[in-house]
Amino acid sequence: MIKKYLLGTFLIVFCLGNVKAQETRQIEIESAVVTSHEISINGKRVPYKATAGTMPVWDEDGKPMASLFYTYYERTDVSDKAKRPLVVSFNGGPGSASLWMHLAYTGPYKLNIDDEGYPLQPYGYSENPHSILDVADIVFVDPVNTGYSRIVNKETPRSTFFGINSDIKYLADWVNTFVTRQNRWASPKYLIGESYGTTRVAGLVSQLQNSHWMYFNGVVLVSPTPMGLDREGPVASANYLPYYAATAWYHKVLATELQARDLDEILEEVEAYTIDVVLPAMAKGGSIDPSKRNEIAKKMSYYSGLSEKVILEHNLAVPTNFFWKELLRDQGLTIGRLDSRYKGIDRTGNGERPDFDPALTAWNHAFAPAFNLYARNVLNYKTDLTYNLFGPVHPWDRSNENTGEQLANAMRQNPYLHVMTQSGYFDGGTDYFNAKFNMWQMDQNGKLKDRLSFKGYRSGHMMYLRAEDLKTSNDDIREFIKNSLPAKDSPAKY
């Protein structure tokens, strides 16, 4: 049955049981549509139920300010929820909905794409045999103004939602309510965030731990941002070289002897050269000996596929925008920012940067129609609201960001808390070597290294779009969860 309530000018719809949500352009402050399913994961039957709905964010007076859309997947043949892990999943942007990891990574369905992640027609979806639903329940959350989530009190200041710290605060309140309503306080809990979502979950784990006294077993950082950790100046310029080498290797523009070697072997060498030679040279700036500068430019050219002339013209510090335009310029092609395996065509061959990101353009092809179909046909959630892949959340207040250090502090305070980073080698937006750099800065004294781990993949920002990495990256999360569950009655102490 459907129960309807009016609160001010907003319609509240409570959908109880396996019923359809009302089709409306009005905001449903609270709603839930429950459907039952079954999937085969790694060859084993997994029955589950999906709850697609909305739940409010309240102000200090208990009045709804916004309503967040979520999708919650629960395995139904589990008798003891206290032992069942719960994963709370966010994407990034800021301003991005949760559909990316929802419909392509950890959820029970995946996009209709080819094995390398390119869109296929007809657009659609199929079962995901690599979902982590066999080992954990998952809730995918759309922050305010993304997906079907909306502000419901127009008098609420936008600053309540749209900033690094305000985003963390209201989402922590929402997660606290969700966990309480679902009676999951005893469950081992995990946060996973992608891209800006890593900034979000790094701050959330600290906020939930210190303001709501909710402790987590793990955080998964997928293609992490800087998270407020200092990597400016020479570090910012030097650290891109390993990514440049990986991309040049993929496009087969390196010297024959380098192309013949395995990527992992090359990257280990380039990483060492970056730290030992390039970074000190960048720090010296114009004071470096000209012959030494030329020697380094020659080596950087060898590793990056760019000419020595171009590298010297940029004082060794080649910007990423220029790299994406320059690497295949002689072929009349650009390469993708978020996944440099993808190629694009610009209006002209000259210029300093590509006209567009061919990777993101390709992904939008597949995701938008697939999720709109999936919400109606599988989740049975029907609304006339537009599902915002990217919502209006700007201006975004980026001041006082300290989420990387907040995550490190949470780890120091909570001996149970583990962190895994996942990065694609061909991601130029949040490159893999800077993701490693994050880990080093979070663990200056080396006391956390046994609870920090890194996994790299031969793909880009959304490493899971490549079929081989979809399996591997989900397996890595599965193992991460299993390995971060403490033994029964194991005390949280050092």
Automatic annotation (TrEMBL):
The keyword Signal applies. Residues 1-21 form the signal peptide. Pfam families: Peptidase_S10. Gene3D superfamilies: alpha/beta hydrolase (3.40.50.1820). Keywords: Carboxypeptidase, Glycoprotein, Hydrolase, Protease, Signal. GO terms for molecular function: carboxypeptidase activity. InterPro entries: AB_hydrolase_fold (IPR029058), Peptidase_S10 (IPR001563). This is Carboxypeptidase. It comes from Belliella calami.
